[in-house]
Design goal:
The complex is a heterodimer of chains A (198) and B (473). Chain A has helices at residues 23-26, 46-49, 86-94, 106-115, 124-136, 164-171, 178-182, 185-195, and strands at residues 8-11, 13-15, 71-73, 98-101, 119-121, 142-145, 150-153, 156-159. Chain A is of the alpha/beta class. Chain A has one domain (8-194): Alpha-Beta Barrel (Aconitase, domain 4), CATH 3.20.19. In chain A, 46% of the residues are buried. Chain B folds into two domains: 5-275, Aconitase, domain 3 (2-Layer Sandwich); 291-465, Aconitase, domain 3 (2-Layer Sandwich). Classes of the chains: A alpha/beta (198), B alpha/beta (473). The structure holds iron/sulfur cluster (SF4).
Chain lengths: 198, 473
């Protein structure tokens, strides 16, 4: 469904460090037992946040100074592994509105885009500087400006990248492609006919 | 200039270019299952949409189905509900469904090829990342999220950007005891778990061409673990012979017609690739993982890496993995004690996998402290294995022979590791907590290596355990 245009995301941020954070870690498989995505927020990163007896492991997401953060920062190949949309759903339901990382796994990136969660890529040096700023002062506000392809924080500018087609989709509110796909019904049927799939 | 298979299949299936520059791609075959698809039907209902091409979608249950007792209602209420939602949705929308006891149920990536639903030149989607398996037939086969499952149900199309194509040529000849699983683990360890981001992988060269279809599926299955969105192998006589006579494959003159079309999809001899990698197949050893990503893999002769040898995030990654796996830097991987052995999954749960192991198990018995299960990938695999007496051979060696499903590959059913048990597994993911226990540890390897580990009670070299000749140096 065509949603609302997304051009700027503003909020506090939390840095969950690590390369190759997979979707099994983001949402363990036992939480995939659901017929809707509504209840997934609290299960985000469950096994790294809690011990088996349910006590907190003092994960960065559970530290009071980062409560209410709306921007998630991580490192390379974020969201690799399973295609489960439960992962971006859990991230969204937890309260995150955007993700900054060194790179993203493709299926995860596509899932986030469809759900209206922009994924922007930031170089390692810049991420380290940003993480340092946040470690010093977790109350700092960040703004991700998709049109300008930059993040601002404490009067500093951090360049980010995002594919043109994805950025345009956020700006034009067409990141959920379904309406657009459905307008092609005649062309779809013609293709099916041509390929013998009709 | 010639085109490669990816470009040909892509060009054929493009419906039109969308305003944002992406392409609308027609999906020839859509496979659905109980974990990522029921939610999509809810989304359709919200929008009052119908399924556009129900005859191009097929459903089965695999992820949460128990492998000991599949009688309904299932003991797990939520599992029962998910299966019920899928079954209701398929009958409401006129989608063909293969439930347990239909004779065709199984892991979605085993079922598609064995029925002949998977055919060369198709675009194939499923809400499961290992959809890349189907690329073995010369397809663009993509794992998708639930919203995209909704898109395909509603429109039979996806919005996509084209991928680049990297050809990976595996030269030479595999040594005895080295399998397709070792080849793909080696490729991923060489190129990295994110080496394939933005790419489709074309696997080529003599080692790949000499593989059976089942072996090719094992290779393509794990493309996604190397970061590639999909992987494929050009269709050839091996492909066509596999398909001939299958239930959903055209027969007679229709087959001949299809054959001509299928042949046309193979990459042209002068096709261009965005990148080329050559791997010397003769130097691949039986390969096992030591860490928590499929790329953290080494030869069975190798030692666990030393974090001090690298810096920065790489060092953190190794430290993290060693801590989780409770392994020490520089320790040989061989001899690592295991508690559980699992043979199954869409990577290695096909008839040839069980045959290969059964051929070696004779006279052997698993170690006393090991729990071992063999889980056929589908009801057809199970039936064929039974007809050959394979379950008896596994049981005589101390394995349990189970009913078909994903089982301990992701442990959404009762088959789980307990505590920090170590599992020698023929599946495809060794992520933290993947096999059902938040502290469970997974070591990925080929089915015959799992059998060797089960017998010795520790990670072992199948070539030594089974006295395979011509031990590679
Ligand atoms: S066997 Fe494992 S990887 Fe394959 S479909 Fe099932 S859960 Fe996914």
């Amino acid at each position: 469904m065509t949603g609302i245009p997304i051009d700027k995301i503003n909020g506090r941020a939390v840095y969950v460090a690590g390369n190759d954070i997979d979707t099994d870690r983001i949402i363990p498989a036992r939480y995939l037992k659901c017929v809707t995505f509504d209840e997934l927020g609290p299960a985000l990163f469950y096994d790294v946040r809690f011990n088996e007896d349910g006590t907190s492991r003092n994960h960065v997401l559970d530290r009071p100074e980062y409560a209410g953060a709306e921007i998630l920062i991580s490192d390379n190949n974020f969201g690799c592994g399973s295609s489960r949309e439960h992962a971006p759903q859990a991230i969204g339901k937890f309260g995150f509105k955007a993700i900054i990382a060194g790179s993203f796994a493709e299926i995860f990136h596509g899932n986030c885009t469809t759900l209206g969660i922009p994924c922007v890529v930031m170089a390692q040096e810049q991420r380290e500087r940003l993480a340092q700023l946040l470690a010093q002062d977790p109350t700092l506000d960040l703004t991700i400006d998709l049109a300008a392809r930059q993040v601002t924080c404490a009067n500093m500018i951090f360049p980010v990248t995002m594919k043109d087609s994805v950025r345009d989709a956020f700006l034009a509110a067409t990141y959920d492609p379904l309406d657009n796909l459905l307008t092609g019904r005649e062309a779809i049927d013609a293709t099916a006919e041509r390929l013998g799939y009709a | 200039m010639g085109r490669n298979l990816y470009q040909k299949v892509w060009d054929d299936h493009v419906v039109r270019q969308l305003d944002n520059g992406q392409y609308q791609l027609f999906i020839a075959l859509h496979l659905i299952h109980e974990v990522t698809s029921p939610q999509a039907f809810g989304m359709l209902a919200d929008k009052k949409l119908k399924v556009a091409y129900p005859a191009r979608t097929f459903a089965t249950v695999d992820h949460i189905i128990p492998t000991d007792n599949q009688s309904r209602p299932l003991a797990d209420d939520m599992a029962e509900k998910m299966i019920q939602v899928l079954s209701d949705a398929t009958s409401e929308h006129g989608i063909e469904y293969f439930p347990p006891s239909s004779g065709a149920q199984g892991i979605v990536h085993v079922v598609g090829p064995e029925l002949g639903l998977t055919q060369p030149g198709m675009t194939i989607c499923c809400g499961d990342s290992h959809t890349s398996t189907h690329g073995a037939f010369g397809c663009i086969a993509l794992g998708i999220g639930t919203s995209q499952v909704r898109d395909v149900l509603a429109s039979q199309t996806l919005a996509m950007d084209p991928l680049k194509v990297r050809r990976i040529t595996v030269t030479g000849k595999l040594a005895t005891g080295v399998t397709a699983k070792d080849v793909i683990l080696h490729i991923i360890a060489t190129l990295g778990v994110n080496g394939g981001v933005g790419f489709a992988y074309e696997y080529a060269g003599p080692v790949i061409e000499n593989m059976t279809m089942e072996e090719r599926m094992t290779v393509c299955n794990m493309s996604i673990e190397g970061g590639a969105r999909c992987g494929y192998i050009n269709p050839d006589e091996t492909t066509f012979e596999f398909l001939r006579g299958r239930e959903r494959v055209p027969s007679g003159s229709d087959f001949d017609q299809a054959l001509t079309r299928w042949k046309g999809y193979a990459s042209d001899v002068d096709a261009e690739f965005d990148d080329e990698v050559i791997i010397d197949g003769s130097r691949i050893a039986p390969t096992v993982t030591w860490g928590v990503t499929p790329g953290q893999a080494i030869s069975i002769e190798g030692s666990v890496p030393d974090p001090e040898a690298v810096s920065g995030l790489d060092r953190d990654l190794i430290n993290d993995a060693l801590g989780y796996m409770k392994l020490k830097a520089n320790q040989p991987i061989k001899g690592t004690r295991i508690n559980v052995a699992f043979i199954g999954s869409c990577t290695n749960g096909r008839l040839s996998d069980f045959r290969a192991v059964a051929g070696l198990l004779n006279g052997h018995r698993i170690a006393d402290h090991v729990r071992a299960i063999a889980v056929p990938g589908s009801e057809k695999v199970d039936a064929a294995a039974r007809a050959e007496g394979l379950p008896e051979i596994f049981e005589a060696a101390g394995f349990e022979w189970r009913l078909p499903g994903c089982s301990m590959c992701l442990a959404m059913n009762p088959d789980k590791l307990v505590g920090d048990e170590v599992c020698a597994s023929s599946s495809n993911r060794n992520f933290q907590g993947r096999q059902g226990s938040p502290t469970g540890r997974t070591i990925l390897m080929s089915p015959i290596m799992v059998a060797a580990a089960a017998i010795r009670g520790e990670v072992a070299d199948a070539r030594e355990v089974f006295g395979l000749e011509e031990i590679a140096s």
